[in-house]
Amino acid sequence: MKVLLLKDPKDKESGPDPYVKELGLYGFEATLIPVLSFEFVSLESLFEKQLSHPERYGGLIFTSPRALEAIKICLRENSKNEAWSKSLQQQWNTKPAYVVGKATASLVEEIGLSPQGEKSGNAEKLAEYICSRVPLESLTVYQTAPHAHLQQSLSSYFSQQGVPASIVFFSPSGVKFCLPYIQKLSSDSANHVKFAAIGPTTAEAMEAAGVTVSCTAESPTPQDLAAGIQKALHPQNCILSE
């Protein structure tokens, strides 16, 4: 059975995408289609006003892997990388660095910080935990837009592979940008597709758009998503195995 994953593939250097690999263990044929493109903004402000002044803050919150990419771009400059290595990294390490998922947590470790909260499961639970402890100041460091080849990629997939058994959304932006094309391409067959969400925020966006959510991953991991899709597509098997 075919599963369409509306997300960017993992970096090729890091090996096969973990979602494709995990779904393959259940016998699913998963395909990735990149949905979003990103433009990084306010990077000078990020370093000069935020990262350079750890004394002003009680910690850091990274909302996605893209936020870490923004920091890595900042640290490409020799002077900023030197400042980070000499003192800033150590100062920030005395404060919590919050994340939701394991993918973001691993990137936090790459810049020398120790992540917390990756097991919280979703942004709402993490936010409740954080807001009970510290006031917040936010800075937007990237903007999202539809991937340049999104429409073409979706059209090619549906014409070559047909309508998949399940389609997985990984963000509210993905719902916004992909759903009109998917509804047009799948036509009446959309009623037979099991739509899945990586988390509750994405599920809410799907429901608001009129999509029936067949499953939501208990936590944003390949294992929980694959188990949820297996249960949605083969409920009888899950009942028997229990």
Automatic annotation (TrEMBL):
Domain of life: Eukaryota
Record-level Gene Ontology MF annotations: uroporphyrinogen-III synthase activity
SUPFAM superfamilies reported in the protein's UniProt record: HemD-like
EC id: 4.2.1.75
One GO location term (cellular component): cytosol
Principal EC category: lyase
Biological processes, Gene Ontology terms: heme B biosynthetic process; protoporphyrinogen IX biosynthetic process; uroporphyrinogen III biosynthetic process
Keyword entries, A-Z: Heme biosynthesis, Lyase, Porphyrin biosynthesis
Domain Tetrapyrrole biosynthesis uroporphyrinogen III synthase: 18-133, 134-226
PANTHER family cross-referenced by the UniProt entry: UROPORPHYRINOGEN III SYNTHASE, UROPORPHYRINOGEN-III SYNTHASE
Protein name per UniProt: Uroporphyrinogen-III synthase
